[in-house]
Amino acid sequence: MQASWGESNGRFHIKDDWSGDGLSQNDEISHFVTAYGLTKAFSRIWGWTGVSPRQARTLAAVETGSLLTLVETLDAFNPRQGLGVSDLVFDFAGIGVGLLALRHPGRWDIKFSAKNNLFRAQKTLFAQDARESDYYVFWATYRLPLGWAERQPLSVGLGHSVRRGADGISPVRELYLGLGTTVPDVVRSVAPGAARYFELLEVYYFNVRVRATVR
Fold first, then answer.
1. pLDDT tens per residue, range 25-65
2. Which of 82, 119, 135, 201 has the fewest C-beta atoms lying within 10 Å of its C-beta?
3. Which of the 8 DSSP states describes residue 45?
4. For residue 159, what is the DSSP state?
5. What is the reported pLDDT for 52?
């Protein structure tokens, strides 16, 4: 954890994470999306073990909440980070919405994408600074009821991200409108019975998009 997240060798402190981190709430949104995705993924993994759907959801919520609380605890002692109160709020909001999606699945979903190459080299899996955070777009998507009815794979998405301004420091908020799909949606359109084997990949949104800058 510390190799990925940074050393926790300082004093406990709380950071100004809502507006003081130079990310224009993109970090809070990333916490929401991460918690949402982990809750759904852990629930499906527990489901593969044979437990009931209700037990799988409960275990997934506890596991996700414990993991993300541990991350914030490490951040609280990290001189470069700090405990993020709004981060924790968005973590548990994401868990709640993830549980809702598991109990009442529909056409809507929450996803992320990279602005360019998903496999671009980074120091760690998670963004460690503003520029690495800028690399991701976070999406609310809705699968369109077209043609093939339940089997068509296309979703429309509303996305949020941030980039650095002309000074290389100031955040510039970006909003996106996209059209895309996911691996399990594509598989479902041609082989519905096989789609469940790819469900863990549903969090990544392959898309074409247009961007608007919010000053």
1. 888 899 999 999 999 999 999 999 999 999 999 999 999 99
2. 119
3. H
4. E
5. 96
Sheet holding 171-181, edge to edge: 108-114, 136-143, 155-164, 171-181, 206-214
pLDDT tens for residues 104-134?
Answer: 988 999 999 998 876 664 555 555 566 677 8
Amino acid occupying residue 32: F
As a residue count, the chain comes to: 215
pLDDT score of 127: 59
**What does the DSSP 8-state code read for residue 22?**
S
For residue 83 the two structure tokens come to 């405990």
SS3 content of the chain, % helix, strand, coil (to 5): 45, 20, 35
Rg (CA), the chain: 18
Q: Report yes or no: 158 and 176 within 8 Å, Cβ to Cβ.
A: yes
Collapsing DSSP to helix, strand or coil, 40 comes out as helix
**Tokens representing residue 171 in the block:** 């955040």
| Phi and psi angles of residue 17, each rounded to the nearest 5 degrees, phi first | -90, -15
H or E segment and range at residue 207: strand 206-214
Hey, what are 202's tokens? Answer: 């549903």
